[in-house]
Amino acid sequence: MKSSTIVDTARKALGPVGVLLPISFTSAPSAELQREAVGRLERAGYRAAWTNEAFGKDALVQLSILLAATERMTFGTGIANIWVREPQTAHGAAALLAQAYPDRFVLGLGVGYPEQAATAGREFGRPLATLRDYLARMTAPTFPPAPDAAYPRILGANGPRMLALAAEIADGTVPSLLPAAFTAHARQVLGPDKLLVASLAVHADADAARARTAARETVTGLLARPSYVAALRELGYPAEELEQVGDALVDSIVAHPDPAAIAAAIRAHLAAGADHVMLMTSLGGDYATGIAQLEQIAPEVTEIS
Q1: How many domains does the chain have?
Q2: Handedness of CA 138, 140, 83, 227 (dihedral sign)
Q3: Per-residue model confidence as pLDDT tens digits over 8-56
Q4: What is the radius of gyration, based on Cα positions, of the chain?
Q5: Keywords in UniProt for this one (predicted)?
Q6: Confidence of residue 211 (pLDDT cuts 50, 70, 90)
Q7: pLDDT tens digits along 53-82
């Protein structure tokens, strides 16, 4: 299947708005809790859901359970960690999901961070070369062969070189929690024929001051990563604002406090060139609370077209 056909099909299946399933750092939600959660999200009107991956959790196994638990929902990995499986194995698993659930699966891949490579006993090395080699090896011949099923492959990319690589060898990209200005830049680099999934942190709270505090905590955590700071500097954010975690910076990264403000932030990313916006609740928060928050804002955001 041609890349353009794969991208067009994915755009229709994903729709403009989806969710990242809440990420807990202290416990693993049971399979039954996750089945119930995606059922609730599907009934709330969301057309797509995404999951992350870390050691101790296999995103592709997780999605096989969640695809079976829903009727129409499209699922994606945001992102699958390349250090946890060999490329031919990743392709075989992804192709089987694509064959079993046609047009309901998107594979997001990324190199992640040096500590993820170290956990697997690997050297982080040169991430661009590593990811290029990984994608090239995915479709290498195997015995028995992988299922003959097409699916979109997109790359996690926040920096200019990774964006360029995604434009060259993948079907698109999924930047991580960057402002709409970055979405516009990513679209320029990718051109019109690639899939662009923007991720947007959200925090809905009737108490606006409390929401702003929570949003600032999220941004402060992101700024602990030098690569994230570098991406913001490329966008022109002054060092003083990054150091002070200013209100304008916080507001450009975390949509808050109410559904209307969140919907406006989604529309800003779509207007900047995103095909799909993935909503992310607080990292490390309670799973059930995150699902409830996504349900709460659904009436406002699922109507976006």
Answers
A1: 1
A2: negative
A3: 999 999 999 999 999 887 888 999 999 999 999 999 999 999 999 977 7
A4: 18
A5: Oxidoreductase
A6: very high
A7: 977 789 999 999 999 999 999 999 999 999
Q: Please classify residue 129 by burial: count the beta carbons closer than 10 Å to its beta carbon, then call 0-12 exposed, 13-18 middle and 19+ buried.
A: exposed
Query: Which residue has 């729709």 as its token pair?
Result: 15
- CA 50, 282, 170, 90 torsion: positive or negative? negative
Please give the single-letter amino acid code of residue 108: G
Task: Tell how far CA 39 is from the center of its chain.
Answer: 20
- In single-letter form, the type of residue at position 61 comes to V
Query: What mean pLDDT value characterizes the chain?
Result: 94
Supply 82's token pair. 């390349």
C-alpha to C-alpha distance for 160 and 199, rounded to whole angstroms: 17
User: For residue 106, what is the enclosing H or E element?
Assistant: strand 105-110
Long-range pairs of 28-37 with CB within 8 A, sequence gap ≥ 24: 28/56, 28/57, 29/287, 31/65, 33/287, 33/288, 34/62, 34/65, 34/66, 34/69, 35/65, 35/66, 35/69, 37/287, 37/288, 37/291
**Which two tokens mark 57?**
């959790």
> Is the pTM higher than 0.90?
yes
Q: What is the CATH number of the domain that holds 105?
A: 3.20.20.30
Q: Which of 257, 236, 305, 299 is nearest to 277 (CA)?
A: 305
In sequence order, the β-bridge partners of residue 61 are none
Name the nearest CA neighbour of 211 among 256, 249, 259, 250: 256
Classify 236 in phi/psi space as left (phi over 0), alpha (psi -120 to 50) or beta. left
